[in-house]
């Protein structure tokens, strides 16, 4: 009887070893590298989506927010009405959740037909490199997207097939909304200070000092999440660094440096703002959303932030809320962080590519832009034309139009490298809190950037 | 009658859904892999990189600091509370037990959200400080590089203490009343009584409490994720958060797996040591 | 036993202070949940926050899923733990120490360490987005703890109890269910409640294992409020109340039984 258990144990042990052997035989991921970008290219058959038969289109997006969600609900209803044979099965979740999940899901077989993928090298760039997204160039020809969208917008969804170049090459997604980072301010607060909206960076910096001397908190920033500071530093950087260079750095293309004098000056100004209380006592201890909530309740004169905040803040502040693009950059033209909402892409393994392309076409059409505007969002196209007649949205539409037509929409800095979101978020927190010097943080940025463009 | 048949079903599920993935994590840690597409075998490369990785070393240091808040402080406070409850014949004992244990039953996501609001610059903690005339101490607690980690630690303290206290109370409950009566006849005060009777009789419970809370401390993820995302800078990053961050944000699944394996080994090592010490004492008595 | 008045007062002071400390974050979130949403100025309490959060987070469906997952995890994990704990606690067999340490290891493995491989392997089998993918990793975790717990419980039973049953000719299974389990019921109930609680509160595993959101549980409903561009303290707190309330109710209903079981269970160690 005693031998029996031992053989059983041996059996277990043996099974375990056999299991381990099987395991070590199959490496994680695909053992054979998929030919980069080759999942694409084949010209689609031009088909009328109405003739595709019954299709269930699986869509994952992150438009959970009020106006964006309302617009998509309306658009999907209109789409299903136009093509009764297509049913849209939509799952929406928060940006961070979707981002984490997409990287797991895209490598699988059970992929959605349409998914929102962040433009960044860490997201879209990686997927392009792995051949996991459909090159939409043939569809662009079929649907005339290159006439519909300005080249500057499309450049933010273009990668070369091997993803080494960002900004040129194949087309991997289409955005629906526009975004611009600028300065929100309270008109009453400016009036109380006897000031006008600043026309130059010098004016702006002087105004901040004035506000501080008057006992006001000059700017509001909630940066516990790490990424909000990117939206403050980006526009400030353009006061010191040529927009062309920022684009190079921000898109992770070789040939620029983070450690030149201009960048040091920008980062030092940012450090001064942080350590001398221009954002109040502890921007790093305040959340993004409570920060703008406080702003609506009377804290601070300026709120550097993105256009997406307007609807919610306007609901509280009404006419008092104003928006302006940051003053002209070092080259004399307007330049600020911004561009487009998260683009909609098609996974390479999607089951209904043709219907997916029709969906993307529909939600970025002229008609769609109207629906987005009607629901309180900012459409990426026809912006000037669809601008509301008054209020902060008018400021925003005009700012977006001017910057995108005459100036430079700077990329979000986290586009730069797969790890730059982390590097920049951490570094800007450290500068704000005085944990690290401007030079040290820029050295970290440079290391990340060079490691990427060099390798 | 083979014991193995009884263990087998549990072992199958456990092996398939925990041990096997753990082995796979070990295997992943030998590859350079972004989470999709092809992978490259790098041997122990990821582990070698960790040796020189300041951020990883910081994370381990933070986790060890959290043990003070999750385990040591709750043990001290829990001992005092349990001794009071055992000896003091306090009325409403049931009520206090329920209330003090309450933090354990609430989802960590919810706990984190609550404390997050308390620590905010306009939160309850600062309101209290200002009301006490200590307004200059008010700050955004989670944004202060020196205080963010202790602030997260205090959430752990809040979480652990009820559990530890109940465990210790269980141990003290077994002490015969005669022992206390005899001690009191000898004129022992509460302090001597505590060291002579209560403490020695709960060594096993102390071991259990330490094992459970140290595991909780080293596995801290939800709290850091919701309250600070490891910030400001890297002031509150911990190994579990590094695992998540490397896998999902940095797309370094190999490195993430290596951190996970190191973390598992660390947890295992500390607990084997504690259990050994605990069991020796139990055997010795 | 008599205790001096001064000491008694001090005891109460300490206890009341500590109880307040334990309660205040819970009260904070309850109050925030009933406070005004951003931009709302009418005085509260704003019960509609709960309804709004319920609707936005689709908590009706999420709570149902949570309940199903928890029921599956507790039933399976408990049964397996009792069987394994019986072997470890009452029998001597070669390799038992090694095997037991193997189970103990499971208590210490962070979920983050296993979810990534689990996701890929289960996906290959086409099991992601099923209740099995969400439940079985948690069953494995619960089995690790349950086995640890039941072993301690069964070990502490008087040895002659099991021996007597064996002499009476009762088989292993019969001894287990007739002799070993009945006196251990409080302890079993305790571990069941603990397993239920952990499963209910788990966040990472359902998030990763159900990428299509078909099996997302209640705590994940909180995630929908925490997107990059949206958050309202009152609504987040209201969602927190929705998630926490069921478990608090269960705890309050079972607390006497639960705490008694917990104390007896731990005392066996």
UniProtKB/TrEMBL annotation, chain A:
Annotated signal peptide: none
Phylogenetic classification of the source organism: Bacteria, Bacillati, Actinomycetota, Actinomycetes, Propionibacteriales
Protein name: Sugar ABC transporter substrate-binding protein
PROSITE patterns from the UniProt entry: PROKAR_LIPOPROTEIN, TAT
Superkingdom of source: Bacteria
UniProt-listed Pfam families: SBP_bac_1 (PF01547)
Record organism: Tessaracoccus lapidicaptus
Automatic annotation (TrEMBL), chain B:
Coiled coil: none
Protein's membrane topology: Multi-pass membrane protein
Source taxon at top rank: Bacteria
InterPro entries linked: ABC_transporter_permease, MetI-like, MetI-like_sf
GO biological process, one term: transmembrane transport
Subcellular compartments: Cell membrane
CDD domains linked: TM_PBP2
GO cellular component: plasma membrane
Keywords linked to the UniProt accession: Cell membrane, Membrane, Transmembrane, Transmembrane helix, Transport
Main location: membrane
Transmembrane domains' residue ranges: 5-23, 59-83, 95-118, 147-173, 194-218, 253-274
Keyword presence, Transmembrane: yes
Family to which the UniProt record says this protein belongs: Belongs to the binding-protein-dependent transport system permease family.
UniProt protein name: Sugar ABC transporter permease
Organism in which the protein naturally occurs: Tessaracoccus lapidicaptus
UniProtKB/TrEMBL annotation, chain C:
A single Gene Ontology CC term: plasma membrane
CDD domains: TM_PBP2
Transmembrane region(s): 12-34, 67-86, 98-119, 131-150, 179-200, 234-254
Annotated localization: Cell membrane
Listed InterPro entries: MetI-like, MetI-like_sf
Alphabetical UniProt keywords: Cell membrane, Membrane, Transmembrane, Transmembrane helix, Transport
Pfam families in UniProt: BPD_transp_1
Annotated ABC transmembrane type-1 domain residues: 63-254
GO biological processes: transmembrane transport
Membrane topology designation: Multi-pass membrane protein
Coarse class of the protein's main subcellular location: membrane
SUPFAM superfamilies associated with the record: MetI-like
Entry's family note: Belongs to the binding-protein-dependent transport system permease family.
Protein name from the UniProt record: Sugar ABC transporter permease
Species of the source: Tessaracoccus lapidicaptus
């Amino acid at each position: 009887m005693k031998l029996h258990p031992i053989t059983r144990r041996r059996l277990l042990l043996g099974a375990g070893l056999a299991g381990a052997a099987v395991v070590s035989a199959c490496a994680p991921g695909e053992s054979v590298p998929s030919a980069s970008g080759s999942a694409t290219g084949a010209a689609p058959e031009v088909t009328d989506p109405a003739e595709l038969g019954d299709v269930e289109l699986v869509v994952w997006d992150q438009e959970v927010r009020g106006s964006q969600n309302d617009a998509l609900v309306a658009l999907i209803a209109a789409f299903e009405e136009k093509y009764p044979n297509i049913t849209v099965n939509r799952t929406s979740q928060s940006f961070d959740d979707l981002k984490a999940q997409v990287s797991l899901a895209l490598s699988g077989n059970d992929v959605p037909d349409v998914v929102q993928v962040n433009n960044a090298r860490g997201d879209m760039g990686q997927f392009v490199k792995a051949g996991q997204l459909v090159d939409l160039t043939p569809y662009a020809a079929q649907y005339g997207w290159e006439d519909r969208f300005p080249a500057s917008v499309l450049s933010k969804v273009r990668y070369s097939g091997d993803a080494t170049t960002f900004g040129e090459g194949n087309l991997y997604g289409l955005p629906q909304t526009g975004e611009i980072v600028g300065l929100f301010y309270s008109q009453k607060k400016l009036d109380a200070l006897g000031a006008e909206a600043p026309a130059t960076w010098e004016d702006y910096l002087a105004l901040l000092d004035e506000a501080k001397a008057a006992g006001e908190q000059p700017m509001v920033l909630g940066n516990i999440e790490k990424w909000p500071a990117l939206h403050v530093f980006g526009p400030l950087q353009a006061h010191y660094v040529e927009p062309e260079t920022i684009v190079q750095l921000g898109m992770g293309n070789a040939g620029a440096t983070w450690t030149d004098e201009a960048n040091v000056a920008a980062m030092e100004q940012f450090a001064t703002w942080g350590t001398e209380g221009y954002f109040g006592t502890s921007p790093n201890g305040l959340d993004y959303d409570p920060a703008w909530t406080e702003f609506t309740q009377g804290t601070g004169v300026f709120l550097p932030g993105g256009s997406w905040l307007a609807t919610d803040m306007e609901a509280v502040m009404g006419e008092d809320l104003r928006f302006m693009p940051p003053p002209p950059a070092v080259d004399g033209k307007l330049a600020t962080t911004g561009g487009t909402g998260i683009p909609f892409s098609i996974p390479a393994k999607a089951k209904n590519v043709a219907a997916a392309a029709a969906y993307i076409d529909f939600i970025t059409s002229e008609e769609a832009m109207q629906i987005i505007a009607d629901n309180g969002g900012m459409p990426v196209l026809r912006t000037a034309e669809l601008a509301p007649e008054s209020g902060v949205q008018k400021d925003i539409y005009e700012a977006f139009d001017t910057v995108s037509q005459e100036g430079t929409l700077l990329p979000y800095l986290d586009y730069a490298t797969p790890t730059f979101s982390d590097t920049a978020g951490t570094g800007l927190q450290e500068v704000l809190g005085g944990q690290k010097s401007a030079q040290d943080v820029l050295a970290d940025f440079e290391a990340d950037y060079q490691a990427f463009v060099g390798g | 009658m083979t014991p193995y048949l009884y263990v087998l079903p549990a072992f199958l599920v456990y092996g398939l859904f925990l041990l096997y993935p753990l082995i796979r994590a070990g295997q992943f840690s030998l590859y350079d892999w972004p989470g999709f597409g092809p992978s490259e075998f790098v041997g122990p490369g990821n582990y070698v990189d960790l040796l020189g990785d300041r951020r990883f070393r910081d994370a381990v240091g933070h986790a060890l600091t959290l043990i003070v808040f999750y385990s040591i402080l709750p043990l001290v406070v829990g001992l005092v509370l349990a001794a009071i409850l055992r000896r003091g014949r306090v009325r409403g004992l049931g009520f206090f037990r329920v209330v003090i244990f309450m933090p354990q039953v609430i989802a960590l996501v919810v706990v984190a959200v609550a404390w997050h609001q308390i620590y905010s610059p306009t939160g309850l903690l600062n309101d209290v400080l200002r009301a006490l005339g200590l307004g200059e101490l008010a700050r955004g607690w989670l944004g202060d590089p020196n205080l963010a980690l202790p602030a997260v630690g205090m959430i752990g303290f809040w979480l652990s203490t009820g559990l530890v206290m109940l465990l210790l109370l269980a141990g003290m409950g077994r002490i015969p009343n005669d022992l206390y009566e005899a001690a009191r006849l000898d004129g022992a005060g509460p302090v001597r009584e505590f060291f002579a009777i209560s403490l020695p009789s709960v060594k096993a419970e102390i071991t259990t409490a330490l094992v459970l809370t140290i595991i909780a401390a080293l596995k801290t993820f939800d709290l850091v994720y919701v309250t600070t995302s490891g910030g400001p800078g890297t002031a509150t990053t911990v190994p579990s958060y590094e695992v998540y961050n490397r896998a999902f944000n940095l797309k370094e699944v190999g490195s993430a797996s290596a951190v996970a394996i190191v973390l598992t080994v660390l947890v295992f090592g500390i607990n084997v040591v504690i259990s050994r010490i605990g069991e020796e004492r139990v055997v010795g008595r | 036993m008599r205790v001096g008045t001064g000491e008694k007062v001090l005891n109460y002071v300490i206890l009341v202070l500590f109880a307040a400390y334990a309660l205040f974050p819970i009260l904070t979130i309850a109050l925030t949940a009933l406070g005004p949403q951003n931009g709302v100025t009418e005085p509260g309490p704003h019960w509609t926050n709960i309804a709004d959060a319920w609707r936005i987070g689709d908590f009706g469906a999420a709570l149902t899923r949570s309940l199903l997952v928890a029921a599956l995890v507790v039933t399976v994990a408990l049964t397996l733990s009792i069987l394994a704990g019986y072997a470890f606690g009452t029998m001597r067999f070669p390799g038992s120490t090694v095997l037991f340490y193997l189970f103990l290891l499971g208590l210490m493995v962070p979920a983050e360490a296993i979810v990534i491989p689990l996701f890929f392997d289960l996906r290959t089998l086409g099991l992601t987005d099923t209740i099995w993918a969400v439940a079985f990793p948690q069953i494995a975790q619960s089995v690790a703890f349950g086995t640890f717990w039941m072993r301690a419980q069964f070990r502490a039973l008087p040895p002659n109890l099991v021996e007597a049953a064996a002499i009476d000719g009762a088989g292993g299974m019969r001894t287990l269910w007739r002799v070993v389990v009945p006196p251990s019921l409080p302890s079993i109930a305790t571990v069941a409640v603990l397993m239920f609680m952990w499963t209910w509160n788990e966040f990472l595993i359902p998030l990763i294992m159900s990428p299509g959101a078909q099996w997302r549980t209640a705590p994940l409903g909180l995630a929908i409020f925490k997107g990059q561009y949206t958050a309202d303290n009152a609504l987040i707190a209201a969602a927190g109340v929705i998630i926490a309330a069921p478990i608090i109710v269960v705890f309050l209903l079972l607390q006497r039984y639960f705490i008694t079981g917990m104390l007896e269970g731990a005392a066996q160690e």
